[in-house]
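Schema walk-through. Below, the input block comes first and the output block second. Nothing else is stored per chain. Lengths vary across the set, and this one has 111 residues.
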Amino acid sequence: MTEPIAYTGGPGEVMRINANNLNLELKMPEDVASEELLAFLANCKSQADAAGIPPERYSIDMAAEFAAAIDRAMGRAPELPEAEPETGETETEAETDETETTPPEDDAGEG
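--- output ---
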C-alpha cells in the first residue's frame, strides 16, 4: 500500500514510523511527488473499501489517545470501556426471559 511513498534508499532522508507492530520507512514529505501521493491515497481508499470501512469522519479525542500512549509506554494498560450487549440485555436477563416464557409441563393426563 505504501509503495508510492516508501523509502527505497538512495538520496534523501528517510522518515521512520514505528508503532506497535507497524514499522514503515517513508520518503520525506518534500521528496514525494504529487503523483506518488495521489497513488498512495488511491491505494488506501481501495484497501479501506475492500475491508468494508465506511467513508465517514472519525472523531478522535487526542488527549485521551496521548494519555493512553503514555500509559502504554509506562507499562500501565489503559482501562477499556465495558462492552455493552448488542441486544441491550444481559445474558442473565435473556435466560430469565426464556424461563418465564416456557409453559409448565402438565402431569394431569399421566398416572
